[in-house]
TrEMBL record:
UniProt region (Disordered), positions on chain: 1-26
Residue intervals of the Fatty acid desaturase N-terminal domain: 14-58
InterPro entries: FA_desaturase_dom, FAS_N, Fatty_acid_desaturase
Name of the protein this chain belongs to: Fatty acid desaturase domain-containing protein
Domain Fatty acid desaturase, residue spans: 82-342
Record has 4Fe-4S as a keyword: no
Family: Belongs to the fatty acid desaturase type 1 family.
Skewed-composition ranges (Basic and acidic residues): 7-19
Keywords, comma-separated and alphabetical: Membrane, Oxidoreductase, Transmembrane, Transmembrane helix
Gene Ontology annotations for the cellular component aspect, listed alphabetically: membrane
Pathway listed: Lipid metabolism
Membrane spanning residue stretches: 52-72, 78-100, 112-132, 176-193, 246-269
Length: 382
């Protein structure tokens, strides 16, 4: 892996041992980290960014064509094999498109804000995602990462805040239920009901321009987001009338389940690991929070998903670096971050079960006077 901190190690018996990430104030600054990165990594090439966009669009439309032309007429049992293959292929490519839309929201696609927002708006709206709404809530996540009070997504519960149903959810059937929900409707629960998000004094979601998530200057763009989603939904309604609801479900909506399953799992695993600290307001600062994330290895999907998976630490530190420079930037920052850089190559399915098991709530260590009270760690011991 090179320089950096491996979040999991093996003891002499071959058993997995979780090594906590450092939680103290880092001995380096953000400026120190930036100096280590070659300056060209910060350059946003419109031509190069567009090439990734066009390749993803080509494959997405190609898979749509194959599905409509060849898979729809297939008889069973061949269709039982062809449809899942199509869903995974199309969903993976569209997750790549979703990542490009995410880069547009971070202004990492090009030097032109209007172009970034235009491309991001149409990409995300085409996948029924609220572009501006998520752009702004996601920006707040980047501004408050790992803050127990102010982070915007995947905010863990403190042990003291658990309710009576917690014991059921902390059993193997409960963990399986949580993972199924996470992979299927987790995205909808978050954008519609702010599930796992920051707690606000009033109801918050990603569609209400008056939602407490947004400032007054952002509300018109939330309205534009809603308009785009209404237009897209009407278009899908017309497609359903022409082709049938089942056709639309199989060709369009099923791959979206893959996309949003990917999105939620990737985001959750970036911020959920037994090695990662969270902070309350007495200990949190931006750099410590940004470092409380972890890179993961998704194998071939690293490339298909434009390395959102294995360059997430660098992304949280410098979110305008385009994905095609993020690997080089990650390599450059490891010698500076040392143990503050966290990486885990545990197979993803195994990691999902382990994190669902071990990362049920957070609590501060109970110890001597030297224990840092404002630093919270994942645990599952009720």
């Amino acid at each position: 892996m090179g320089s950096g901190g491996h979040a999991t190690e093996r003891d002499n018996s071959g058993n997995e041992v979780i090594k906590r990430a450092p939680s103290s104030k880092p001995p380096f600054t953000l400026g120190d980290i930036k100096k280590a990165i070659p300056p060209h990594c910060f350059n946003r090439s419109l031509l190069r960014s567009s090439s990734y966009l066009f390749v993803d669009l080509f494959f997405s439309f190609f898979f749509y064509y194959v599905a409509a032309k060849f898979i729809v007429p297939l008889s069973t049992p061949l269709s039982y094999v062809a449809w899942p293959v199509y869903w995974v292929l199309q969903g993976s490519v569209q997750m790549g498109l979703w990542v490009i839309g995410h880069e547009c929201g971070h202004q990492a696609f090009s030097d032109y804000t209007w172009l970034n927002d235009t491309i991001g708006y149409f990409l995300h709206t085409g996948m029924l995602a609220p572009y501006f709404s998520w752009k702004y809530s996601h920006r707040r996540h980047h501004s408050n990462t790992s803050s127990l009070e102010n982070d915007e997504s995947f905010v863990p519960k403190k042990k003291s805040a658990l309710n009576s149903s917690a014991r059921l959810l902390n059993t193997p059937p409960g963990r399986l239920f949580r993972l199924v929900v996470l992979c299927t409707i987790g995205w909808l629960l978050y954008i519609c009901f702010n599930v796992s998000g920051r707690k606000y004094e009033k109801f918050a979601n990603h569609f209400d321009p008056k939602s407490p998530i947004y400032s007054d200057r952002e509300r018109f763009q939330i309205f534009l987001t809603d308009v785009g989603l209404v237009v897209a939904s009407y278009g899908l309604y017309k497609v359903a009338l022409a082709q049938g609801v089942i056709w639309l479900l199989m060709v369009y909506f099923a791959p979206l389940v893959i996309v949003y399953g990917f999105l939620v799992v990737i985001t959750w695993l970036h911020h959920t690991h037994p090695s990662l600290p969270h902070y309350d307001s007495t200990e949190w600062n931006w750099l410590r929070g940004a470092l409380s994330t972890i890179d993961r290895d998704y194998g071939a999907f690293n490339t298909i998903l434009h390395h959102i998976t294995d360059t997430h630490v660098a992304h949280h530190l410098f979110f305008t670096i385009p994905h095609y420079n993020a690997m080089e930037a990650t390599k450059a920052i490891k010698p500076i971050l040392k143990e503050y850089y966290q990486f885990d190559d545990t197979p993803i399915i195994k990691a999902m079960w382990r994190e669902a098991t071990e990362c049920f709530f957070v609590e501060a260590d109970k110890g001597d006077e030297n224990t840092t009270k404002g630093v919270y760690w994942f645990n599952n011991k009720m």
